[in-house]
Amino acid sequence: MKLPDAARFATICIHAGQEPDPTTGAIITPIYQTSTYVQEGLGQHKGYEYGRTQNPTRMTLEANVAAIEGGTAGFAFASGMAAIDAVLTRLQAGDHVLVSDNTYGGTFRLFEKVRRKFGLDFSYVDTANLDAIAPAITPKTKYLFIESPTNPMLAVTDIAAASDIAHRHGVRVVVDNTFASPYIQRPLALGADIVLHSTTKFLNGHSDSVGGIVIVRHDDDVEWMRFVQNAAGAILGPMDAWLVLRGTKTLPIRMERTNANTMRIAEYLAAHPRVSRTIYPGLPSHPHHALARRQMQGFGGLISFDVGSLDRAREVLGKVRLMALAESLGGVETLISHPAVMTHASVPMERREMLGITDGLLRVSVGIEDIADLIDDLTQALG
Fold this sequence. Notes:
Layout lengths: L8 H7 L40 H14 L3 E5 L2 H9 L7 E5 L4 H10 L6 E5 L7 H4 L4 E7 L11 H10 L3 E5 L17 E5 L13 E5 L2 H14 L5 H12 L1 H20 L6 E3 L9 H7 L6 E5 L3 H10 L4 E2 L9 E3 L11 H7 L5 E5 L5 H12 L1
Parallel strand pairs: 2-3, 2-4, 4-5, 5-6, 10-11
Antiparallel strand pairs: 1-7, 6-7, 8-9, 9-12, 11-12
Helix pairs in contact: 1-2, 2-8, 11-13
């Protein structure tokens, strides 16, 4: 199925990389649940040799998300963390990575507890402050690793400006686009070199799959990622690939509803007397609101808000009925979590305090339920 050259986003999500099954005409890509492929003769195969190396369902997903993000090629992995780790394999001992200071706790743990042992060096700056980037770049810096919006403080980095600074120093830019989704922003179009996602979140959208994906634009990155995906083998299985393909088809319409719901809830929380702080890029009070309006299409599905103390946070979490207390985000159902105890428990307390991740901070991943029911739930929980 050939897409028009000027195909728009929703059309790309549904059709890119996907052809009707040549055997049956099935419009949905089959789940190729196989470990190997029969060869007609020695060295004679149909483009598929072994399930770790090639799988038609996974490769369809990779082509689909690469088109959605506007990249050259995509590579799907068993989790978002496996995707980040695969990107790091481009580096060598002694290389340096400059990282957004409010990065996801799991990313911080991977960098500091695993990859530092193998000779990589990491330092952290507020990438939303463009003046902080260039002074932190060293002759050994290879990557500028950006999260935008960040988890859970929702700081927004000017990706185009940050990429320009990095490129002037010969540094490639990696953007974790999980919190936004490609519906909200496409970092490669803003100048980034590599974009990655936990497909578990908005791309899948239904809380029933764990995975990750890396999308690259440069040929040398394509060559390396193809090699390391096969060599290290942390691949996404065909069933999970199929589930994410189902998710990308509804990404635009899910994100439209999520954006609308989240804006309403942010406005509600900002006016609530028992909430001391509401953090959402869509609110004029957010320090990066103007940038978010310019860089993003909508403001996303995550809100953080502070209720003042751990005891108060525990009370609210114990009273919510519709919102589920759970890690993760980006599903059709609304989830609420406590970053200091849950997603960022691996970050030292003093660092959490420096970043503003207080014991009273809660994070909501807003789903697509009826907005009145979500606000009713918050009203009774906060009251």
